[in-house]
Design a protein that fits this description.
The protein is an alpha+beta fold. The protein is built from 18 helices and eight strands. It folds into three domains: 71 residues, Glucose permease domain IIB (Gyrase A, domain 2); 168 residues, no CATH class; 156 residues, no CATH class.
Length: 463
Amino acid sequence: MTAAAPAPDARTTAGALLPLVGGAANVTSVAHCMTRLRLGLLDRTLVQDEALRAHPAVLGVVEDDTTYQIVLGPGTVARVTPEFEALLLQARGAAIKAAQKDRNSTPGKVLLRRVADIFVPLIPALIGCGIIAGINGLLLNLHWLPALTPALAAVASGFMALIAVFVGLNTAKEFGGTPILGGAVAAIVVYPGVAKVEAFGQQLSPGQGGVLGALAAAVLAVHVEKWCRRHVPEALDVLVTPTLTVLVAGLVTVYGLMFVAGGVSTAIGTAADWLLTHAGAVAGFVLGGLFLPLVMLGLHQALIPIHTTLIEQQGHTVLLPMLAMAGAGQVGAAAAVYVRLRHRTDLRRTIRSALPAGLLGVGEPLIYGVSLPLGRPFVTACVGGAFGGGFVGLFHMLGAPVGSTAIGPSGLALFPLLDGGSGLSATTVAVYAGGLLTGYVAGFAATYLFGIGRPLLSPPPAP
């Protein structure tokens, strides 16, 4: 006798059924009785009846005036329905994300994404060097291993000393030029010999303009190179194009871009210091509260060069720890949804799987799988982020600033990168931890009290 084939598991069955009923966009409601998965559908013609009936887990199909019923049998339907709901929620979250991305495809936002694509590849090096710098600062404070700390300082600082070159390489690549030419022009920004250059009654200093100067120099180099490719005879291209690219873009960088970018970089640092010193609590409240919407709109990418400029100037960015509080509000909101909606097993399953990542600063699963599809919890998560950011900003005003030596991580993963101006200290850790705790609690409380409407609180009607 031939053994019967094993029955497919519930998630596999749910995953097979969803496209056969027209996909997530076609499903308006989900319920089940003892034997049947009952679906509300927008368009009945999208259902693949024959394929559904042929599925090994489907015992039959029944239609009435309001629902489309798939007979799965007792026990099976109870296991498949929660998986079906979870897949439906994930699919809708992905659809929301895709639609948001399409809406964001304006010229300005495309430019921001291109800027992000220049800096994002640098993040692993920023993180690695930032953590090493933190370890070195801790060793210096404790007066441990004095023979090793100079070497660690060199390892941690080498990348930052030449970050302009890497920005130039990535910029030229992103804008369609030759990467090495972009890097060559950007290298002028950090070349020690520029200290001998004087123009407009001012003397240049190595590194003046920083990553912003390197970015502008490389963009200019790309335009010069493309002009040369169009106008220089092919026989001379290999000699003339790189020479003119470096010469023209280099001279404009030395006599113009470095001065302008230097002024902008200095203004960014000065403005950040003034704002947080005089209105840190308000600034933190606003930054922490608005960061999730900025992420949704893609506008957070504009902050990457600002973070990098602050790290280059001051050794850390004071903005990131406050922005990271948005993730804490998101975690608190998700926890409140988990507690209040005990009947929504699909949501609770998604939250259980996404919460560890959220604690470590990876918020997309919670955003697109939980808070954004539900609506109100997204707003109350922002409230939690605002209170967490306000907490960190308040302590900046009180003389206990918290910065990060790198960008990328947030949540609990940001602890190794914290810097209060004199390295990692107990005060810095305590303030950041207090901000996270404030964000968790405020996000939970706001969501628990105001973030869940009556329709969500009501359990589905009995079949």
